[in-house]
Amino acid sequence: MNTTDTPITDRYHRLSRQLSAALDDVPADAWSAPAPCEGWDAQGVLRHVVETNRDFLGRHVELGPASGELRADWEAVRALTQTILDDGRGEETFQGFFGPTTIAEVIDRFYGMDLLVHRWDIARAAGLTEHQALDDADAAHYLEVARSFGDALRMDGVCGPELPAPEDATAGERLLAFLGREPR
Fold this sequence. Notes:
Blueprint: H1 8-25, H2 42-58, H3 70-86, E1 93-96, E2 99-102, H4 103-126, H5 136-148, H6 171-178
Antiparallel strand pairs: 1-2
């Protein structure tokens, strides 16, 4: 599958469902397990996904208060994001960090990449090997996106320094290493 030909709404639908499936399989005692993101546990990664998505969406649409239950809040933000992409509101333009953009482009470039990579982070923390595989086409797409961010990707609190990828690395492993994660 060539992800550049995949509509953003379809990619988001697939990636958000994959994250939800991984979350369904996290054992209760694994939420406090250390994640590959330094200083975070699995629950902290999910909190990051929920809070950053809510923050972005809240700048563009009316949001009610979060419930305080991370799993429920994830499903609510996932459903709202999908609705925004499906009903055309995602095509609204605004001035973003990197210049003029659309809501859909930001959802794909930032939050879509988060869905892919943070699913891996949570699965890795929880020992869920069946949820750690990254689709090569998605990984290649997001590696290109990540490279386009330049120095902004390495700002404090975003991503650590790039790590060397194994010689025989898959696209997913190259993406993870580029984002500062040890892929194996």
